[in-house]
Design a protein that fits this description.
- The complex is a heterodimer of chains A (363) and B (511).
- The two termini of chain A are 26 Å apart.
- Chain A has 363 residues and is mainly α.
- Chain A has a two-stranded antiparallel ribbon.
- Helix content of chain A is 68%, strand content 4%.
- By secondary structure, chain B is an alpha/beta fold.
- Chain B has 3 domains: 233 residues, 3-Layer(aba) Sandwich (Rossmann fold), CATH 3.40.50.300; 178 residues, 3-Layer(aba) Sandwich (Rossmann fold), CATH 3.40.50.300; 67 residues, no CATH class.
- Classes of the chains: A mainly alpha (363), B alpha/beta (511).
- The interface between A and B is large, with 27 and 48 residues.
- Chain B: Pfam families: ABC_tran.
- Chain B: It comes from Marinobacterium mangrovicola.
Chain lengths: 363, 511
């Protein structure tokens, strides 16, 4: 009588080569599964390469649209990175993004400040609003030990209700039948770069990526974050300002998400709508994980993901494939990547057991 | 013990990591029913050899035989099935589970232990057999380090180990606990089990082992010598090689400076009427008062788990007191953050360095520079990473931290070298008060001697040292004054030349 048995063992050492190959393999495998799902959903195999790669990255209009979509994705990717480096789960990125959009719109609709400084004021307001929205779960976590997963997630729902409350009420555009705010003035819009819908917000995103990279890799705070994220007791015992660092990085996370909302309303929509920023929590976390929490790697990752979103739009229009397929593909890629990471550290083997071994431990 | 054929034979074992050859044709032989001491300094290859035996590593070359038959071990479960068990220095226990649950978790290959009642019973009977008391329903996380170790030993034995590898079993025990532990080891051997005892305490080797194998730099320098033919001096010279200086049994090679008891300066640490609670709310410290003056080492002796852990956490600033006061260099420190206390000159070497002083996932340079980064020495806003690397390199060379590169991962260093990193970082020019808790736990003779030398130098330079240790020999060798803690209370104070018996009487006096 023989039976099989699955065993699991931790590898003694993981080489850089193994680490890199498993990562790339995981990514490719995930994309492969994603493609299979796409084909199963009815996307035509013949034009898939064209739809997924050529049209979104190598055609002028397609690339412009991909980059436009990438702007908020870069920021939410950085927002997730900022929190995840401290092992803080910010799953309320959408909520902070909506608050950011509301903050920018508030400045625009109330004609706050001088017209020449209106746009920077709007962006600043969006960052502050986003930071304020995450301040609530942050305080709950630091003061009362409330799990940030629950608090950030639930506050997102509150943010969405607030958004709808404004769009169906006080801020509803009287000349529009849809629940949208009045259109912003020209001085309240980011400059178009004359390349599709692409706007000057891309410079903001690039600049912030660079600043984040410097913060994480060169600053004293970045060093503190590395220690706190890995061993909080040591951080406390060696006198690292743990609470201050966490507060700074988490407020930054909320501010970046809020700024993403600000850039969407000032750069693309030019008004507040209820469709902005959907799924950005998920995308932000996916980007941060794939980029391994490295700000510079967030940039290409966000652009590739934007390409998939862009292609998703095409697939929806031409083949009637629901755009939730894009979220599905993201999920598949992330899960595959994480599962393959497991095989990086563990060896799994299937063992056939025949008769019991002759030498049993004596008791 | 040399009669008959050996139970276990390891012959001509080679092992390299990358380009580093850590084992070079090593041989080892174990007889049935013997206690076989395996000796060597840190990095001599003892742990690697044992890891090969239990299937964590595989040998590059060489042969393993059990009862004359080739033994193929490619993974830990293979060795467990053959009845080979190891009790590591870092315990293989899940904190959130009870002892019984930990045994159930490990009992994959033991159908007879599959029920909770059977596992519980097995633990209790094992504990009884070797003279331990333990509560199988207690969560492991609530146990002291010493209790965890007893639990781990019972677990491995309950799983039916007939060859038991003990990696420094007495490193965390006090003298009285250690003797009962060693007596238990002898009983296990008499009942037919074979014990491989890895230890740094030569007195234990001479008193409790049948045979000795000594390793140095990845080679066997003495294989299976009869202990009765050996003296401590002989063993220590074999271990240390020809460059050996004469070492006393526990690696303590210099006496306290005579008469320095009168030379001490002002109180750098004054603790008065301090009370604190444990995590579970029970009192940990009751009305503790201590003072440590500049230039002296105050030894705080006692059995582990009697409030030492809470006291060191409290002094470091990561645990709060319920009442009392702590003055560091004349300043009221209880309300201060760890950072402010460091500014007053407090430096800490905690008992569990990897948990609360070092970061194993970061580079050695990051660990060496950690507190200087906090004090702003490498820049307030931006860090001078190049200078961090450069100073780390200099520090590694100055303190002879073997196998370390500034960019290397901290977690890959051996215990002795990790402690060197911590000493290099903590003993700096700003130090006024040094708090050291079990600073030589798990270190070999040479590393322990180095730690002791550093503590003495620190005191000689005018620092106040509070040495909290469960090792009475260490306390006796270093302290100018000795206090004893038991059940969270200070039981009394003795002069530095007090005898072990006097200290022991105070330790036990309360029980």
């Amino acid at each position: 009588m023989s039976s099989f048995r699955l065993t699991l063992e931790r590898r003694q050492q993981v080489s850089t080569l193994r680490s890199t190959t498993t990562y790339i393999l995981g990514l490719l495998l995930g994309l492969g599964f994603g493609l299979a799902v796409l084909l199963a959903a009815g996307a035509p195999a013949a034009t898939l390469l064209d739809d997924l790669v050529i049209q979104v990255f190598f055609s002028s209009m397609g690339l412009a649209q991909t980059l436009t979509l990438a702007v908020p994705l870069i920021l939410v990717g950085l927002a997730a990175t900022s929190a995840m480096r401290l092992r803080f789960w910010n799953v309320g990125i959408e909520g902070q993004l909506w608050l950011g959009a509301i903050g920018a719109t508030l400045v625009a609709l109330s004609d706050f400040g001088s017209e020449s400084l209106r746009l920077p004021t709007m962006l600043l307001a969006s960052a502050i609003a986003g930071a304020a929205w995450i301040a609530v779960p942050l305080i709950l976590k630091l003061r009362a030990g409330v799990n940030e997963l629950v608090a950030t997630l639930l506050l997102s729902n509150v943010a969405y209700l607030l958004l709808q409350h404004l769009l169906f009420g006080a801020w509803k555009d009287p000349v529009n039948s849809f629940p949208v705010s009045p259109r912003f003035d020209d001085s309240e819009q980011l400059a178009s770069l004359g390349f599709g819908n692409l706007h000057s917000g891309i410079y903001v995103a690039l600049g912030i990526t660079l600043l984040m990279a410097i913060l994480v890799q060169k600053s004293r705070t970045g060093f503190y974050v590395d220690v706190i994220g890995r061993n909080r007791t040591t951080a406390l015992a060696t006198g690292i300002p743990v609470t201050a660092t966490i507060t700074l990085m988490i407020l930054l996370s909320g501010a970046l998400a809020g700024l993403a909302g600000g850039l969407i309303v000032t750069g693309v929509e030019h008004r507040l709508t209820q469709t902005i920023g959907i799924n950005t929590t998920f995308s932000g976390i996916v980007i941060a994980f794939i980029a391994r929490f490295n700000p510079l790697a967030v940039l290409p990752t966000a652009i590739v993901l934007a390409g998939i979103y862009n292609a998703g739009g095409t697939l929806k229009v031409f083949y009637g494939i629901p755009d939730s397929i894009v979220v599905l593909i993201q999920g598949i890629v992330l899960l595959t990547l994480l599962m393959v990471q497991f095989f990086r550290s563990y060896r799994v083997s299937l063992i056939r057991q025949s008769a019991p071994q002759s030498s049993q431990p004596s008791t | 013990m040399s009669q008959g054929s050996p139970l276990l034979t390891l012959s001509a074992i080679d092992k390299s990591f990358d380009i580093h050859r850590v084992l070079n044709s090593v041989s080892f032989e174990l007889a049935r029913g013997e206690v076989h001491a395996l000796l060597g300094e840190n990095g001599a290859g003892k742990s690697t050899l044992m890891n090969i035996l239990i299937g964590v590593y595989s040998a590059d070359a060489g042969k393993l035989e059990l009862e004359g038959k080739p033994l193929k071990i490619s993974k830990p479960s293979d060795s467990a099935r053959q009845g080979i068990g190891m009790v590591h220095q870092h315990f293989r226990l899940v904190d959130r589970l009870t002892l019984t649950e930990n045994l159930l978790l490990a009992a994959d290959d033991h159908p007879q232990l599959k029920s909770r009642a059977a596992a519980r019973e097995a633990l209790l009977s094992t504990a009884k057999e070797i003279g331990f008391t333990l509560n199988p329903d207690c969560q492991v996380g609530e146990l002291s380090v010493a209790e965890k170790q007893r639990a781990e030993i019972c677990k491995v034995l309950a799983l039916g180990a007939r060859i038991l590898i003990l990696d420094e079993p007495t490193a965390v025990l006090t003298d009285s606990e250690a003797s009962s532990m060693l007596a238990a080891i002898r009983r296990m051997a008499e009942s037919g089990r074979s014990i491989i005892l890895i230890t740094h305490k030569l007195r234990e080797v001479v008193g409790f082992s049948h045979r000795v194998t000594i390793m140095r730099r990845g080679e066997t320098v003495a294989a299976g010598l009869d202990t009765s033919d050996l003296s401590i001096e002989k063993i220590s010279s074999l271990m240390m090689g020809s460059s050996s200086t004469s070492l006393s049994p526990d690696g303590i090679n210099s006496k306290k400076a005579p008469g320095n008891i009168q030379e001490h300066g002002p109180d750098l640490l004054a603790i008065s009427h301090l009370n604190a609670r444990r995590d579970d709310g029970a009192p940990a410290l009751t009305d503790v008062s201590l003072r440590v003056r500049a230039g002296e080492i105050l030894g705080l002796a006692g059995v582990g788990g009697n409030g030492q852990h809470e006291l060191t956490e409290l002094l470091s600033g990561i645990r709060s007191a319920s009442s009392g006061s702590v003055m560091i260099d004349g300043a009221d420190a209880l309300g201060l953050s760890p950072r402010q206390r460091r500014k007053l000159g407090l430096r800490v070497i905690p008992a569990d360095r990897m948990a609360s002083a070092l970061v194993s996932d970061l580079s050695i340079a990051a660990n060496l520079s950690l507190t200087s980064v906090v004090s702003g020495r490498f820049g307030r806003l931006w860090l001078n990473r190049r200078r961090i690397q450069r100073e780390a390199q200099a520090s590694i060379e100055q303190h002879e931290i073997a196998g370390a590169r500034p960019s290397g991962r901290m977690g890959l260093l051996s215990g002795g070298n990790a402690q060197k990193v911590l000493l290099a970082r903590e003993i700096d020019s700003g130090m006024k008060l040094l708090l050291a808790h079990s600073p030589t736990r798990g270190l070999d003779i040479r590393a322990s001697a180095l730690v002791h030398q550093r503590l003495r130098e620190a005191a000689a330079k005018g620092a106040a040292c509070l040495l909290v240790s469960e090792d009475v020999e260490e306390i006796m060798a270093l302290s100018d004054r000795i206090c004893v803690i038991s059940a969270g209370k200070i039981m009394g104070e003795l002069p530095g030349d007090a005898s072990a018996a006097d200290i022991g009487r105070l330790i036990l006096g309360h029980e």
